Amino acid sequence: MSAEVLAEEFEVLESIYPDEFTKLSEREITIDVEPDDPVDGIEPLTLAFNVEYTDDYPDALPKFTLDATQGELDEAELEHLHDELQRVGEENLGMAMTFTLVAHLRERLSALMREREERERHEAAEKERKALEAEEARTRGTPVTLESFHAWKVKFDKEMAVKRAREEEEKLKGLSAKEREEFKKSQTRLSGRQLFERDTNLAALEEDVEDDGVSVDISQYDRTAREEEETEEDHLTFSDSD
Question: Could you give the C-alpha distances from 69 to 25, 32, 108, in angstroms and in order?
Fold first, then answer.
């Protein structure tokens, strides 16, 4: 391409990108490229698109490099962008292609920012999920089985017995000899539950006695009562005759 034709393309590019375009020489330029649709909350991403035009341009691709000027791009991402620009340039051989290359680069930077936003959202959701699972595991505790409950019950009963013994020992220390004796006697008295169980046993004993055939003749009781009443009446009548 002649210098005049290339200068004409530079003039068009400078009018489109007045703040981003920098002419380094008659055949070299740099354009600062930003995403055409930035994503809020994501680190800004800007590249320097360095282009060197050969004598065969536009029938041959210009030489170009990419440098991150804001934000970070790893080697794999830079290589992928470079390969895409190669493909787009080959599709536009024979015509001025710099604007097309910059436009594609702006689109790809926007896509990269959206991918990063989605990745950050996914990582945040995964982090929250793991935190919830950890909290549930912490509050859920160990599942209770019959065996584990029995083991706990035995241990608990032993601890309670030791605790009661210590409490009684401390209580006895503050009592006089007579009060300690009374306290010990109170410990031997039957509790309400023991009394209830004893009454139940007595009731069962009475049922056993009835089953063995022991009974009371009510008629005998009535005859004895009548004889006593008649004797009393005779005594009263005799006293009145005097």
Answer: 21, 8, 16
Its pTM stands at 0.54
DSSP three-state, residue 49: strand
Q: Contact, 45 vs 109, CB < 8 A? A: yes
- Long-range pairs for 61-66: beta carbons < 8 A, 24 or more residues apart: 61/86, 61/89, 61/90, 61/93, 62/89, 62/97, 62/98, 64/101, 66/105
Largest CA distance in the chain: 175
Angle at which helices 98-140 and 3-16 pack, to 10 degrees?
40
**b (16+ CB within 10 A) / e for 165-193:** eeeeeeeeeeeeeeeeeeeeeeeeeeeee
Structure tokens at 49: 């698109």
d(CA 153, CA 39): 61
Cβ–Cβ contacts within 10 Å for residue 113, how many? 21
Is residue 236 predicted with pLDDT exceeding 50?
no
Residue 19, H or E segment: none
Angle subtended at Cα 138 by Cα 135 and Cα 141, rounded to the nearest 5 degrees = 140
**For residue 203, pLDDT beyond 70:** no
Q: Are 10 and 27 within 8 A, CB to CB? A: no
